[in-house]
Automatic annotation (TrEMBL):
Family: Belongs to the FKBP-type PPIase family. Tig subfamily.
PANTHER family: TRIGGER FACTOR CHAPERONE AND PEPTIDYL-PROLYL CIS/TRANS ISOMERASE, TRIGGER FACTOR-LIKE PROTEIN TIG, CHLOROPLASTIC
Broad EC category: isomerase
Domain of life: Bacteria
Gene Ontology terms: cellular component: cytoplasm
Name of the featured protein: Trigger factor
Keyword Ribonucleoprotein: no
Reaction(s) catalysed (UniProt annotation): [protein]-peptidylproline (omega=180) = [protein]-peptidylproline (omega=0)
HAMAP family from the UniProt entry: Trigger_factor_Tig
UniProt-listed GO biological process terms: 'de novo' cotranslational protein folding; cell division; protein transport; protein unfolding
GO MF term set: peptidyl-prolyl cis-trans isomerase activity; protein folding chaperone; ribosome binding
Major subcellular location class: cytoplasm
Length: 449
């Protein structure tokens, strides 16, 4: 194998690799001799098939496999001998006009490989980073408020004979129609609706006020222009409603019996769980704020050339999300008071930051031997599988057989472990804030992202 460097400009590399046809012929002979001992071909005894016959029948196929393996092996060896770290898998350029001659054994294997190398940089002393951790102290009133909200969502209703009023629950059957024709998803036999809750199409609930059990009513409404189902958005519709029962709201006593009705042993246990949920919610926001400060400080310390193809790949991911969001929200660049060119420039800066910080975090993790354990990967995989009820086996097999998909599960775990490692060494001080102050801080970070 002869390796010739044809380009070394910044992070870009281009190598020309030449492998003599004689070396490929030796590999082909070895391949066919190995096949000879295993081949079972009609007209020949096992192990007695002439190599020339095998070459005639399978030579081209064998050479194609040898070329694929040789290219993979030589590219890996070439990079290792140069002690370089490609940012992405090298691109291989094998001229098509030479392929036939090479397959036939009449030409040397000669190809180019191009790649970007990862940049070299020094790890800063992040132990001196000063990070302020905003912490919300959970007041008992906050817990009581959320417990009261739970009680409201579990309000008992008792059947009544009178007319439906605001706050009552109507049990009904209904059939929705557009232009006199029923539409998909517009029917229910035992639908329940609390009047005044705003759960149905605007105007629907108001027309049920005053109805009684046994009444039949045609409700006329117009679907909002921004209704999620595009085939219904903005269209006038009627609903043939049969009222089955009117239920008056009772009052849920917030006590041990109420908690038991939710499957818990006591009111104290319910409050404990609610407090934990609130702490978890604010804990995530605190983590988000702390991580943002850490990444901002890293960003201030680093400015280096980025691998072009890695950057372009990240930008395409970011830009695709932008286009999907704009399409879903029916927005244009003009609506956002910008142009496509200006927006691309801004989002490219975001992609540059992501790539740069990703490289820095990866280097810190590697230098400090931070690993993602098999147990952590299994937990992440099972969490992912549970998101697809009924398709668990297919999803599990997809990740099991797809290294790139598994890497997408590993990456966020690895990043969080590196962040944890850095925060243990940084100077982190707690500051008590209100929940409104924490929410504002997080909102500011999201606006700046």
């Amino acid at each position: 194998m002869q390796v010739t460097e044809t380009l070394a400009e910044g992070l870009k590399r281009e190598l020309k690799i030449d492998i003599p046809a004689g070396d490929l012929a030796v590999k082909l002979d070895d391949y066919l001799n190995d096949m000879k001992s295993k081949a079972n071909i009609k007209g020949f005894r096992p192990g007695k098939v002439p190599v020339a016959h095998l070459k005639k029948m399978y030579g081209r196929q064998a050479m194609a496999e040898i070329l694929s393996n040789t290219i993979q092996e030589t590219t890996q060896k070439a990079v290792e001998e140069r002690s370089e770290r490609p940012a992405l898998t090298p691109e291989i350029d094998l001229p098509e006009e030479d392929a036939e001659k090479i397959l036939a054994g009449d030409a040397d294997l000669s190809f180019k490989m191009t790649y970007d190398v990862l940049p070299n940089f020094e790890i800063v002393d992040f132990g001196g980073f000063e990070i302020e951790r905003p912490v919300v102290e959970i007041a008992e009133e906050e817990v009581d408020t959320q417990v009261s909200d739970i009680a409201k969502n579990n309000t008992p209703f008792e059947a009544k004979d009178g007319a439906a009023e605001d706050g009552d629950r109507v049990t009904m059957s209904y059939l929705g129609k557009i232009d006199g024709e029923p539409f998909e998803g517009g029917a229910d036999e035992n639908g329940q609706l609390v009047l005044g809750s705003g759960q149905f199409i605007p105007g629907f609930e108001e027309q049920l006020i005053g109805t009684k059990a046994g009444d039949e009513k045609v409700v006329e409404v117009t679907f909002p222009e921004e209704y999620p189902a595009a085939h219904l958005a903005g269209k006038a519709a009627t609903f043939d409603v049969v009222v089955k029962e009117i239920g008056a709201p009772g009052e849920a006593a917030i006590d041990d019996e109420f908690a038991k009705g939710l499957g818990l042993e006591s009111l104290d246990k319910l409050k404990e769980i609610v407090r934990g949920q609130i702490e978890g919610q604010f804990g995530q926001m605190t983590r988000q704020r702390v991580k943002r400060q850490l990444l901002d400080k890293l960003d201030e310390h680093y400015s280096f050339e980025l691998p072009e193809k890695l950057l372009e790949s990240e930008f395409q991911i970011v830009w695709q999300q932008v286009e999907e969001d704009m399409k879903r929200n029916e927005k244009t660049f003009e609506d956002e008071e910008t142009t496509e060119e200006e927006a691309k420039a801004e989002y490219r800066k975001i992609a540059e930051r992501r790539v740069r910080l990703g490289l820095v975090l990866s280097e810190i993790g590697e230098k400090n031997n931070i690993q993602v354990t098999d147990e952590e990967m299994q937990r992440a995989l099972y969490d992912r599988v549970r998101q697809f009820p009924g398709q668990e086996q297919q999803v599990f097999e997809f990740y099991k057989n797809n290294q790139q998909a598994l890497a997408s599960l590993r990456a966020p775990i690895y990043e969080e472990k590196v962040v944890d490692f850095m925060l243990e060494l940084a100077k982190v001080t707690d500051k008590t804030v209100t929940k409104e102050e924490l929410e504002n801080l997080v909102a500011e970070d999201e606006d700046a992202a």
